[in-house]
């Protein structure tokens, strides 16, 4: 597990455990009753209307999950307009919240590209021929307003805006863009009520190592090596795991930094016993004793994992949840015996 890895595909976030027993594999049944509402259709704009379906209330910092629905009226479309460009459609959404005093806030979904290249070839389209358009699920991270959006009653609307000119993701020519007949403009849902509830205290159960062990791992030191060699690797198993419960905040992302002799060596999800990926692999080991330390730092942050994610103390809402340092000071015989070499 050497090197700093992109977490877009690697990081998985376990659900918040309401009880430490959940970390030990005991099932916990939670019944959550959510009341739903559907807004009215918003004004007709260039032949398109919008409405949304979502909950009546939500806690501070959580993701507001809405079903967004559009419908087209072909007789009111601009000349030449025949379809909707649905590529990265969440990038064109905004949620507007207004309190009784008239103060407003805006929230956009997370970047659907997660920092990775995205190319629009004109294949993600929906015809505007009068047939019903399938709703799609969108999530608006109220975490982005964690420090400013207070509990209370709000009036909400969702806006979908699409440009007349080609987007930065368009891969074809401008002439092909125009010939495609994409709808452009701004359409807004009807208003709906949303109550923001105070955040309730929550915890998350982790299985962390009380100690670290060595095991044997087969590696190729160079890509062109014909044979694999056995070297020591650092890990922990179920025997070494202990359950700890840490307080977490709504909407934040939990991950872990690993440090080798004080230097960052890996970024992953929280520790897991018997993980197929070792905490560290001593690829350069050819014999002799070794003195080395490892620190595991489990943290939460408001910054969403994206390509080349490198969260740290300067990241939004960064908070250390658990931290521990482990030391190896072993002779060659001790290393070979522990790793089974």
Describe this structure in words.
By secondary structure, the chain is mainly β. It is 6% helix and 40% strand. The protein has 3 helices and 21 strands. It is elongated, with a radius of gyration of 26 Å. Mean pLDDT is 89; it is low at 1-31.
Distinctive features:
mainly beta, 6% helix, six-stranded mixed β-sheet, 341 residues
Give the H and E element order: HEEEEEEEEEEHEEEEEEEEEEEH
Q: Can you give the mean pLDDT?
A: 89
Give the class from helix and strand content and strand pairing. mainly beta
Spans with pLDDT under 50 lasting ≥5 residues? 1-31
Helix % is: under 10%
Taking the sheet with the most strands, its summary is: 6 strands, mixed
The value of Rg in angstroms is 26 Å
Q: Kindly state the number of beta strands.
A: 21
Tally the helices. Answer: 3
Shape: elongated
- Percent of residues in β-strands: 35-45%
Distance between the termini: 20 Å
């Amino acid at each position: 597990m050497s090197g700093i890895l992109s977490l877009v595909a690697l990081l998985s976030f376990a659900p918040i455990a309401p009880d430490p027993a959940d970390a030990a594999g005991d099932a916990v049944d939670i019944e959550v009753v959510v009341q739903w509402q559907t807004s009215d259709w918003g004004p007709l704009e260039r032949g398109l209307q919008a409405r949304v379906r979502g909950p009546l209330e939500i806690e501070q910092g959580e993701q507001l999950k809405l079903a967004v629905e559009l419908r087209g009226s072909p007789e009111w479309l601009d000349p030449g307009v025949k379809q909707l460009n649905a590529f990265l459609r969440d990038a064109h959404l905004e949620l507007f919240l207004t309190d009784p005093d008239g103060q407003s806030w805006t929230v956009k979904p997370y970047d659907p590209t997660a920092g990775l290249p995205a190319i629009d070839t004109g294949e993600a389209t929906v015809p505007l021929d009068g047939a019903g358009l399938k709703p799609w699920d969108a999530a608006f991270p109220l975490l982005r307003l964690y420090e400013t959006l207070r509990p209370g009653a709000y009036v909400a609307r969702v806006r979908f805006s699409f440009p007349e000119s080609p987007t930065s993701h368009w891969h074809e020519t401008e002439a092909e863009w125009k010939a495609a007949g994409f709808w452009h403009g701004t359409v807004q849902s009807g208003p709906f009520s949303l109550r923001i509830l105070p955040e309730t205290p929550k915890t998350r159960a982790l299985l962390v190592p009380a100690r670290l062990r060595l095991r044997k791992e087969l590696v190729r030191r160079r890509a062109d090596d014909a044979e694999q060699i056995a070297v020591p690797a650092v890990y922990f198993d179920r025997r070494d795991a202990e359950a700890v419960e840490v307080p977490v905040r709504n909407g934040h992302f939990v991950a872990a930094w690993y440090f080798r002799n004080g230097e960052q060596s890996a970024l992953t999800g929280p520790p897991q016993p018997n993980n197929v990926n070792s905490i560290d692999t001593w690829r350069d080991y050819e014999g002799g004793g070794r003195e080395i330390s490892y620190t595991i730092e489990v943290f939460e942050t408001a910054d969403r994992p994206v390509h080349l994610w490198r969260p740290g103390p300067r990241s939004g809402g960064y908070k250390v949840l658990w931290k521990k340092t482990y030391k190896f000071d072993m002779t060659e015989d001790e290393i070979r015996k522990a790793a089974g070499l």
